[in-house]
């Protein structure tokens, strides 16, 4: 049983693939307890090879070591409109009232063409990936193949986790299959510079306190800590220590809504005061963008109205993206407006 003040437990997911009914039942019970408590847990014993995890993390670091000019050659705001490619530092504010976040990212998703229906109809984060040219990275084909292999295996693992989640809700194991068919998932390679020692901790974040937008998130951490999960019972931030080979798994807002708030999409943040560079790779599994989400069976009493009306995955997740990026743009506009009179005054004084 998960207790208040406990960091997310590490669960052995190999029980899901075994023929040991008792071990599988224990895994289901443990996952259910986590979903009811704070929506976070870690898993080992999955099918994503450690070697592949290490290779994609090496590529993560190599990409962010490139010059800003080279990274901007695949900038997501300059080369496309479908959320692929490089994202500058301080592009997002997830926690209202904080400064733009000290992280840079690189977005990857399913490799689809501009002829794909998802691209034509502007579905959530759907379009061709943006890869550096061979003049920027001579072995870019290895980067591409490693990233897409890793992406596919983590998406497959996410679908297995959905099967466990179905069992935690006393549903058929394959209950989420239609939702997972044609699912959109977004992989985000991230780099967090260490916060300056004189930065105001109350305002500066690697990533601000937020809940994830989609259904479930699978996060690969490197060796540097910084991820924290909020515990509502103790009102404490709990550190999630990196565990070699493990994925941090957490529920998103869509799963909380789907479960009628039975399960929790919890606040989490990153504050990197380690003095080292931090790297991580989350994969955000949203689901089929056209799937209509409405209250799950067993998540409301007979005759009780659900808390939320039906909504498509597309509408639920895309609205949250727009809000967080819009917040950063609004901050920059307000800052520029404040600085303009000062700059003008200096020009007058020099003149």
TrEMBL record:
Residues 183-287 form the Fe2OG dioxygenase domain. Pfam families: 2OG-FeII_Oxy, DIOX_N. Coiled coil: none annotated. InterPro entries: DIOX_N, IPNS-like_FE2OG_OXY, IPNS-like_sf, Iron_ascorbate_oxido_reductase, Oxoglu/Fe-dep_dioxygenase_dom. It comes from the Eukaryota. Keywords: Iron, Metal-binding, Oxidoreductase. One of its GO terms (molecular function) is oxidoreductase activity. GO terms for biological process: small molecule biosynthetic process. Gene3D superfamilies: B-lactam Antibiotic, Isopenicillin N Synthase, Chain (2.60.120.330). Belongs to the iron/ascorbate-dependent oxidoreductase family. This is Fe2OG dioxygenase domain-containing protein. It comes from Lophiotrema nucula.
């Amino acid at each position: 049983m998960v207790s208040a003040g406990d960091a997310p437990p590490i669960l052995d997911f190999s029980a899901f693939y075994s023929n040991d009914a008792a071990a599988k039942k224990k895994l289901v019970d443990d996952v259910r307890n986590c979903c009811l408590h704070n929506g976070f847990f870690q898993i080992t014993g999955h099918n994503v090879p450690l070697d592949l995890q290490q290779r994609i993390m090496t590529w993560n670091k190599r990409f962010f070591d490139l010059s800003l000019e080279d990274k901007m050659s695949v900038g997501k705001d300059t080369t496309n409109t479908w959320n692929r490619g490089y994202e500058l530092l301080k592009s997002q504010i997830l926690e209202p009232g904080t400064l733009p976040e000290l992280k840079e990212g690189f977005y990857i998703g399913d490799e689809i063409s501009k002829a794909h229906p998802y691209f034509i109809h502007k579905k959530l984060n759907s379009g061709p990936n943006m890869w550096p040219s061979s003049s920027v990275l001579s072995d870019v084909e290895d980067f591409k193949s490693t990233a897409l292999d890793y992406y596919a295996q983590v998406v497959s693992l996410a679908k297995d986790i959905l099967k466990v989640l179905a069992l935690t809700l006393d549903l058929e194991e394959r209950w989420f299959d239609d939702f997972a068919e044609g699912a959109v998932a977004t992989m985000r390679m991230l780099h967090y510079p260490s916060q300056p020692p004189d930065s105001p901790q109350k305002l500066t974040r690697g990533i601000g306190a937020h809940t994830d937008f989609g259904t479930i998130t699978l996060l690969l951490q490197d060796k540097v800590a910084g991820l924290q999960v909020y515990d509502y019972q103790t009102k404490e931030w709990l550190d999630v220590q990196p565990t070699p080979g493990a994925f941090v798994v957490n529920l998103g807002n869509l799963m909380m809504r789907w479960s009628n708030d039975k399960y929790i999409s919890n606040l989490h943040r990153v504050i990197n005061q380690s003095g080292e560079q931090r790297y991580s790779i989350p994969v955000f599994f949203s689901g089929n963008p056209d799937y209509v989400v409405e209250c799950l069976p067993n998540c409301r009493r007979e005759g009780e109205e659900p808390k939320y009306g039906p909504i498509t995955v597309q509408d639920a997740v895309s609205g949250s993206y727009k809000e967080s990026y819009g917040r950063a743009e609004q901050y920059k506009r307000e800052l520029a407006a404040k600085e303009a009179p000062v700059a003008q005054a200096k020009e007058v004084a020099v003149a």
